[in-house]
Amino acid sequence: MIKILYEDANILIIDKPSGIAVHPDGRSKEKTITDWVLKKYPKMKNVGEPLEVTSSKVHKVIKRPGIVHRLDKETSGVLVLAKNQKTHAFLKNQFQNRDIKKIYHVVVSGFVKNDYGTINKPIGRSPSDFRRWLAGRGARGELREAVTMYKVLKRFEVQCVQNFSRSSLTRLRVGSHATKNFKHTAPFTYLEVSPKTGRTHQIRVHMKYFNFPVACDSLYNPGKPCPTGFKRLALHAKSIEFKDPKGRTLKIESPLPKEFEKLL
Question: Whole-model pTM?
Answer without folding.
Answer: 0.88
